[in-house]
Amino acid sequence: MRWREGRVVGVVRRWHGAVEVDVLVEAAVTRALAYPALVGTPQAGDRVLLNTSAQARGLGTGGFALVVAVPDRLPADPPDGPGHLVKARYTPLQAMVLGVDEQESEHHAVMAAADDLAGAPVVVADLHSALPAVLAGVRDVDPGLRVAYVMTDGAALPAWFSRTVAGLRDAGWLTGCVTVGQAFGGDLEAVTVHTGLLAARHVLGADVVVVAQGPGNLGSGTRWGFSGVAAGEAVNAAAVLGGRPVASLRVSGADPRERHHGVSHHSLTAYGRVALAPADVVVPALDGPLGATVREQAAALGLPRGRHLLVEVGTEGLRAALDAVQPATGVSLSTMGRGLDEDEPAFLSAAAAGRHAAHLTR
């Protein structure tokens, strides 16, 4: 952990749960992120302690300096209240929250009785960047459907890090966010993906649930060493709870890495090897050589060779639905540093999964 001390020179912007600030460190200004619920709200002139580890390595998504403390102006103790679920536990910034299914929760009785998703479609995606595109596909079919997001802990732990979640919630596109495992900061907190799914359905009243990790996918270039492996585990969780798993394929026509061209090896491993329960694997109807490649690669996941049902979904009209995301929500579409025009198939694939899930509610 790389420690630095600096002084805040200005607040750049704020969104739900986060404040972005400029900090003067060793005669240079650096961009830093603070979570007020953990460290208080830094202001211009404040001395701050920073963790600059990810920034020093030049990481993309997580390349901020992070405010660890505002030592001269510590926040007041939180009010006494219920909750003994500890997130980021046994780290210096562990936080105690109220779990949705704890005995002290107002939702305890509902969660104690909940054991089934009653066939609700659960869209599973590898990357956080798929979330707004999935919602665009859902809303293209029925904008009245309630959609909840279950954020797993494979990448960013604080949901507050995601401007995407903040924008989609503020626009009314998301009914709410449930953070599970070691992730925290959602509208509801849950211990596991299973209780997160049940909370999304029975507490938030979701018609469709989307499960994906937060921003900051980790990959090592090996078959098993990537955080998206959890997508296969989410398929299993949705199925064992009586939901309808819908597998969103990670597709790219622009990624220069062969293992991610067409259908990413992440999807092929997560759905082909980790997911033991059958899912509807949505194959977007793409034109040209890329479309043929995607269909050929996805065939390995479908019956009779695989265990899943391949569902080809048309993409007509989805580009317009995707174009409408930013004007309606302020959320820009970006995946692995590429926008909609640079890698349209990536977003069409996620939107097709959302379209299929919406049709399953009818």
CATH topology of the largest domain: Rossmann fold
Shape: globular
- Overall mean pLDDT stands at 95
Name the helicity range. 25-40%
Give the oligomeric state: single chain
Order of strands in the sheet with most strands: 11-10-9-12-8-13-16-17
- According to DSSP, the number of beta strands is 19
Number of domains: 2
Ranges with pLDDT <50 over ≥5 residues?
Answer: none
Q: Count of DSSP helices? A: 12
The CATH class assignment of the largest domain is: Alpha Beta
Q: Strand count, sense and closure of the main sheet?
A: 8 strands, parallel
* Measured distance between first and last alpha carbons: 51 Å
CATH architecture assignment of the largest domain: 3-Layer(aba) Sandwich
Characteristic terms for this protein:
Rossmann fold; 5-stranded mixed barrel; alpha/beta; 2 domains; OB fold (Dihydrolipoamide Acetyltransferase, E2P); 362 residues; 8-stranded parallel beta sheet
Mind explaining what this structure looks like?
With 362 residues, the protein is α/β, with parallel strands linked by helices. It has two domains: 3-69, OB fold (Dihydrolipoamide Acetyltransferase, E2P), CATH 2.40.50; 108-360, Rossmann fold (3-Layer(aba) Sandwich), CATH 3.40.50. It is 29% helix and 25% strand. The strands form five sheets. It has an eight-stranded parallel beta sheet with strand order 11-10-9-12-8-13-16-17, sandwiched between helices. The chain has a five-stranded mixed β-barrel with strand order 1-2-3-5-4. A two-stranded antiparallel ribbon has the order 6-7. Helix 4 (130-141) crosses helix 12 and helix 7 packs across helix 8 (265-274).
